[in-house]
Amino acid sequence: xxxxxxxxxxxxxDGYVALCPxxxxxxxxxxxxxxxxxxxxxxxxxxECADPEEVKERLHPEIFIPRLGGRGRVGFxxxxxxxxxxSWPVTASxxxxxxxATS
Length: 103
Description:
The protein is an alpha+beta fold. It has three helices and five strands; from the N terminus they run E-E-E-E-H-H-E-H. Strands 2-3-4 form a three-stranded antiparallel β-sheet, covered by helices on one side. A hairpin with a 4-residue loop joins strand 3 and strand 4 (about 25-30). Helix 2 (about 50-60) crosses helix 3.
């Protein structure tokens, strides 16, 4: 089962903090790419190690993160280079996929 999860990365001091709001998992890195990779690893480890009941309790499937712009306009999230910030798929372990299918 492939589940799309959200990654929010923001600068904090000299580094970056990454958050997956659906699971309330955070990580960090010295660069955006490192924070993203560390967050993906943390989410994957959570799915590998967590009890299916914990996954069910922590997973918030409906997260809305709108980008609000001035005067009724909506903007796009952008990286320091001006490119749109991508989202990425995270593959849940088969253990989680089985737990999700039974709920």
